[in-house]
Amino acid sequence: MNFRMDEEEKIIKKLRKSAMSYLARYEVSAHQFENTMKRKLSNLKANSNGLDKIKIISNLKNEMILAKFIDDKRFAETKIRSMRRQGGSQRFIYVKLKEKGISNDIIKNAINNVDENHENAEMIAAINFIKKKNIGIYYKKNLKNKIDEFELKNKWYGALSRRGFSLEIVKKVFEIKDIEKANLILEDNLLKY
Question: Under a CB-based contact definition with an 8 Å cutoff, are residues 140 and 68 in contact?
């Protein structure tokens, strides 16, 4: 069954309206947008058998990219800033952004832009993570004995490793014994730690 042109235009108009509403609320990658529009198109109750769904979604995606409503570079930089503040390592960032369909080149350039080529970026992110999780020097409870301390440090090492930090960074983070020094690193005022 072929669609009459006005039925197809109605569906496209509904999908465009839905897309605009979606993009007004969220910063998304082109890949996320495409997946969401596929789902929304399949949810439209109209008999859409005669539609070229891939072409409609592709045209709509290109339209949104040209209008700058979708920008993978902007999306990546926004996400990286957020992940760095929350204590995300470079490896963690790559994994999360690859899930969103962002290319390696865009991720690499966005990390360089966000970190402004700071050598301390990984260290700052690791300290942000331990501060957020109240571990390491930010741990508030008194340790009763060496066994508890050993088990706790193993958990802390594991937490940072799962977050994607290298063993070198993890060791450096736990070598810091002074909260003021950690705060100086966070402020990026300490050149060598």
Answer: no
Residues 167 and 35: their CA atoms lie apart, in Å, by 37
Q: Cα(169)–Cα(173) distance, rounded to whole angstroms? A: 6
The rounded distance, in Å, linking the Cα atoms of 99 and 9 is: 32
Once rounded to an integer, what is the mean pLDDT over residues 57-70? 95
Prediction pTM value: 0.83
Top-confidence residue, 29 or 193: 29
Where b means 16+ CB within 10 Å and e means fewer, 165-181 reads beeebbebbbebeeeee
- Distance from C-alpha of 57 to C-alpha of 64, rounded to nearest angstrom: 10
Residue 154 DSSP class: H
- pLDDT of 42 reads 84
How far is it, in rounded angstroms, from Cα 24 to Cα 5?
A: 28
